[in-house]
Specification:
alpha+beta, Lambda Exonuclease, Chain A, globular
C-alpha cells in the first residue's frame, strides 16, 4: 500500500479554522505593561491610537498562544508542588487575575501570580511572570538574562512590582522544545519603574506621534514593524475615534469627544465605530496640510504623488481625492 501523503489534512485545517472563527481581531483597549519595553514610542502611540488594523493570527498561532496559557497553569502547580504559597487570582474575585492600572487608567495589566516561599528567598513575596520560549529565545535568555533578551517582559515585571509595592520579581520560563526551566529573580528599581510609567503617560497624552527610532524604512527595528507603512508609506490610518482630531484621552481611562455636536464620553463600541464627523489627526495623514477649516469640518493635504486629499465630515460631503 502506498504511504499517505504528508500534507495538512482536512481535519487539521478544520481545527485551525475553528480557532480563527471564534476569535475576532480587535484593538487592545488599554496600553499593556509589556509594550513599555518597546523601544519605539511612535510605534506604541500608533498602537494605542488604533492607527493600524489589529493583527490577524492564523489558527496555528492561536493554538500556540493557548499552549502558552496552559503552561502558565502548570508552572503555578509546579511552584505549589514545592511548597510555595501562590496567589494567581484576585483575592476579591477568583475568576480574575490580579489587575494593576497605570497612566491614569489608560494602562492596564494582569499579573500571572504572586509567590511566597521560594527556596531562594522564602520570606519574600515575588511578583511572578511565566513565559514559554522556543529554543533560540530560551538560549538567548540563558546567555543574556531577561532585561537584555526580553525587555518587554522585564518592563512588565518592573511595572507590576512598582504598582504592587513589591521588592522582587520572579521570571519563570520554560523551553517549549525540552521542558527545561529557567528562573531569574529581578530586583525592583524605582528609577526604571518610574521612567516606564512616565513613558506610558507620554504615549497616552501625546496629541501627535512621537519621534520614531529611525528615518530609514530598512532599519532593522522598522523593517518588521506593524506600523511601517504609517511611518514610511502613504496608507491612511483606520477611521475610528482614536484617530480623530476631536477625541481626547482623559483621567480614569476615559475618552471624550470634544466635537460641539457630541461633547460626551466615548465607550469602546463608540470608539471602534467612529462617526460621520470624523476628521483625522493631521499629523497622521501622509501628506502636507495646505488648508483647514474645522468649523466646516474639512482639511486639505498635498500628497507626495501630486494629488490632494480632502478630509471632510460626511455632512461636508465626505473624503475625496483631486
Amino acid at each position: 500500500m502506498a504511504p499517505l501523503p504528508q500534507i495538512k489534512t482536512a481535519t487539521a485545517i478544520a481545527i485551525e479554522a475553528a480557532y480563527e472563527a471564534k476569535r475576532t481581531p480587535r484593538h487592545g483597549y488599554r496600553l499593556p505593561p509589556s509594550r513599555l519595553g518597546t523601544e519605539c514610542e511612535r510605534a506604541l502611540w500608533y498602537s494605542f491610537r488604533w492607527c493600524t488594523p489589529p493583527a490577524v493570527f492564523d489558527g496555528r498561532l492561536l493554538r500556540l498562544f493557548e499552549t502558552g496559557d496552559s503552561q502558565e497553569a502548570r508552572m503555578v502547580a509546579d511552584l505549589r508542588l514545592i511548597g510555595c504559597d501562590v496567589l494567581d487570582c484576585d483575592p476579591d474575585d477568583d475568576t480574575k487575575q490580579i489587575g494593576i492600572s497605570f497612566a491614569y487608567g489608560h494602562g492596564y495589566g494582569f499579573l500571572d501570580a504572586e509567590v511566597l516561599g521560594l527556596p531562594d528567598a522564602p520570606m519574600t513575596v515575588h511578583v511572578a511572570e511565566m513565559k514559554t520560549h522556543n529554543q533560540k529565545s530560551f538560549d538567548a535568555l540563558q546567555r543574556h538574562g531577561v532585561e537584555k533578551s526580553k525587555p518587554e517582559h522585564y518592563a512588565q515585571t518592573m511595572i507590576y512590582m512598582h504598582k504592587r509595592a513589591r521588592d522582587r520579581g520572579l521570571y519563570m520560563a520554560v523551553n517549549k522544545n525540552t521542558d527545561e526551566l529557567y528562573f531569574e529573580r529581578i530586583e525592583y528599581d524605582i528609577a526604571k519603574a518610574v521612567r516606564l510609567e512616565r513613558k506610558a503617560e507620554r504615549i497616552v497624552f501625546a496629541s501627535v506621534p512621537p519621534t520614531g527610532i529611525s528615518t530609514d524604512p530598512d532599519f532593522f527595528g522598522c523593517r518588521f514593524c506593524d506600523h511601517r507603512d504609517r511611518c514610511f508609506g502613504d496608507t491612511l490610518p483606520e477611521k475610528n475615534c482614536r484617530t480623530c482630531a476631536f477625541a481626547t484621552p482623559a483621567d480614569g481611562g476615559k475618552w471624550v469627544c470634544d466635537h460641539a455636536a457630541h461633547n460626551h464620553e466615548l465607550d469602546r463600541a463608540a470608539q471602534e465605530a467612529g462617526c460621520a464627523d470624523h476628521i483625522f489627526i493631521p499629523s497622521i495623514v501622509p501628506g502636507a496640510q495646505i488648508d483647514a477649516d474645522l468649523g466646516e469640518a474639512r482639511v486639505i493635504y498635498a500628497l507626495p504623488d501630486g494629488r490632494t486629499y480632502h478630509n471632510r465630515s460626511e455632512a461636508a460631503g465626505g473624503d475625496y481625492y483631486a
